[in-house]
Recover the amino acids of this structure.
């Protein structure tokens, strides 16, 4: 890349943050979408456990519980029936990661061993989330939980409080994420349908098939979301 090209790219990059169009696009809200819903759920869940833990005088455990509350950040926009199952998998993974970290911390394992085992755990978690199609922050949250467990558990007797804190936080996160099913049980299906319609509309702007694949995927997702949302919760397990 020549110096002239580099300077041109640098000028473009510097101009972007002060562009009125860039700010307009970043601040625009799509009325048919729920782009802020996952962040709101995480905020509510984390606030509940942090405030409760602080009031009870367990500030350090409240921080660990907040990691469990991040369960609500996973499974975004999924039908609630599937979401409940996926978040159960995430909660179990968080408990496992915290337990592993706490065990390593309590046993005084050397740092190189902790890093190695946590790296293997992160790889396994990535495969697990991919297999179950669980969207969200990914295995990094499990690494945080394991690190918190290792830092908190200085003796074997402190492993149980760490696990309890994460379990409580995960339960709160699960409840906050699934609670809207009481008010808008078809919410995820409606959102998926709105996104599919928007994707089909964009086909009119297609310039050689650029939007065709996105529209096909959006329609497939909407059909699947409606099918899962309309199925009775007691009608067997929904595929994740």
């Amino acid at each position: 890349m020549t110096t002239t090209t580099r300077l041109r790219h640098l000028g473009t990059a510097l101009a972007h943050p002060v562009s009125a169009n860039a700010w307009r696009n970043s601040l625009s809200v799509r009325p048919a979408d729920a782009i802020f819903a996952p962040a709101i759920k995480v905020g509510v869940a984390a606030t509940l456990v942090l405030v409760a833990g602080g009031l009870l005088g367990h500030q350090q455990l409240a921080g660990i519980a907040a990691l469990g509350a991040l369960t609500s950040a996973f499974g975004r926009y999924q039908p609630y029936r599937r979401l409940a199952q996926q978040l159960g998998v995430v909660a179990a993974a968080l408990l496992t990661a915290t337990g592993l970290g706490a065990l390593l911390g309590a046993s005084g394992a050397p740092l190189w061993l902790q890093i190695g085992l946590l790296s293997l755990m992160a790889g396994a978690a990535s495969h697990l989330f991919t297999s179950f199609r669980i969207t969200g922050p990914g295995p990094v949250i499990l690494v945080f939980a394991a690190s918190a467990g290792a830092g908190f558990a200085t003796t074997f007797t402190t492993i149980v409080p760490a696990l309890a804190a994460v379990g409580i936080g995960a339960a709160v996160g699960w409840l906050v994420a699934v609670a809207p099913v009481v008010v808008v049980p078809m919410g995820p299906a409606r959102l998926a349908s709105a996104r599919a319609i928007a994707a089909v509309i964009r086909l009119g702007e297609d310039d050689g098939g650029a939007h065709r694949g996105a529209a096909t995927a959006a329609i497939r997702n909407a059909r699947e979301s409606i099918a899962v949302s309309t199925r009775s919760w007691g009608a067997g397990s929904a595929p994740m």
